[in-house]
Design a protein that fits this description.
Elements lengths: L7 E8 L5 H17 L3 E4 L6 H10 L1 E4 L12 E3 L7 H8 L4 E3 L3 H15 L3 E5 L5 H7 L7 E4 L2 H6 L8 E5 L5 H14 L13 H14 L4 E5 L5 H12 L5 E4 L15 E6 L5 H14 L1 E8 L11 H9 L7
Parallel strand pairs: 1-11, 1-12, 2-3, 2-4, 4-5, 6-7, 6-8, 9-10, 9-11
Helix pairs in contact: 4-5, 8-9
């Protein structure tokens, strides 16, 4: 038997990558709800944007629905996704006496509170974000129709005409490109010098950190793989950031099975990162696929350390304590 030597390849892993604190909290809510209340637990929309995660929770007993009318009456909980929901959703749940748990990321909830505060102060509100994204739908749904104007581009800023006699304020989706958003914010400040800005940047720490680590490795890579889902905003932004910062051949893959091996030449440096809703097991799967085909050396570039954690909803914690449970490891 002839031993064929594998070609050499270098993998450069970006950190931080993968799960953020809001995603960990949301998944924990579903898993602990299943352990506390039993099967089934209903989840409105994907709890996070990742098919692997959703399928895993389905196997454990979670039932995913698009709207509350798909949830039968009874005492099984319904969980709202990490992206947040319009105010009408919990209102409808209360009207039906449904027991619900809100897995909205606390950093998204912060944006909701900003929007409500600006509305109370009489400001006209601009939301920088992507039309149709669940987080945008949820944020705009905190206020009456017409209260929030969506801004997607610098051109939208140029076209926007405010109402006379009202103050202006802006908020942003948490998972945007830091650089693209800065250009829009700069345009807003230039056109409307008195506009009210967030006290602290709305783009979340995890989005910012993952984009910074990609910027650090992009120009060192021939190919850069972002492990994540097509409907994940923060994952798509990582692809864009990599392309803008020196790695044109940057692609999104959900699993190792999606890697286009014809584009992987040797000797190459392959960058690997993962969106905030992609579990590390999928990164390991990608690394394993390379190790099956190549003689691999692995390098690491870490640009920040993360220690953020978020508490589970109070009612869930109380019910877990009654059953003597502890958080999943």
């Amino acid at each position: 038997m002839t031993d064929t030597k594998k070609p050499q390849i270098r993998l450069l892993l970006a950190a931080p990558r993968g799960f953020c604190a809001g995603v960990v909290r949301a998944i924990d809510i579903v898993e602990e709800a299943l352990a506390t209340y039993g099967k089934p637990v209903y989840v409105r929309h994907e709890i996070v944007h990742n098919k692997f995660v959703v399928d895993n929770l389905k196997r454990k007993g979670a039932i995913f629905v698009e709207e509350l009318d798909e949830v039968p009456n009874g005492d099984h909980p319904v969980i709202f996704s990490a992206h947040g929901v319009p105010k009408t959703v919990p209102e409808d749940a209360r009207l039906r006496n449904l027991f619900y748990l809100d897995a909205t990321c606390p950093l998204v909830s912060k944006v909701h509170m900003e929007a409500s505060r600006h509305h109370k102060d009489g400001h006209q509100i601009l939301l920088i974000g992507h039309a149709g994204h669940p987080e945008v739908v949820g944020t705009m749904g905190q206020l009456p129709n017409g209260s929030v104007t969506l801004i997607e581009t610098v051109e939208d800023v140029a076209d926007f005409q405010p109402e006379e006699g009202r103050g202006l304020a802006f908020i942003t989706q948490t998972t945007l490109s830091v650089d693209d958003t800065k250009n829009i914010i700069d345009a807003l400040h230039k056109k409307f010098p008195d506009i009210h800005a967030p006290h602290k940047e709305d783009i979340c720490y995890a989005t910012t950190n993952r984009q910074a680590s990609v910027k650090e490795i992009a120009d060192k890579c021939d190919v850069l793989l972002v492990v994540g889902a097509p409907n994940s905003s923060n994952s798509q932004r990582l692809v864009e950031v990599a392309r803008t910062n020196g790695c044109i051949n940057s692609v999104l893959v959900q699993r190792a099975s999606e890697i286009d091996w014809e584009k992987i030449q040797t000797p190459n440096t392959i960058g690997i990162t993962a969106g905030a809703s992609a579990p590390e097991v999928l990164v390991s799967e990608v690394i394993g696929a390379f190790q099956d085909r190549f003689e691999v050396t692995i390098g690491y570039v870490e640009t920040a350390k993360e220690s953020v954690t978020f508490k589970l909803p109070r009612q869930l914690r109380l019910d877990m304590n009654k059953k003597g449970q502890t958080l999943s490891e």
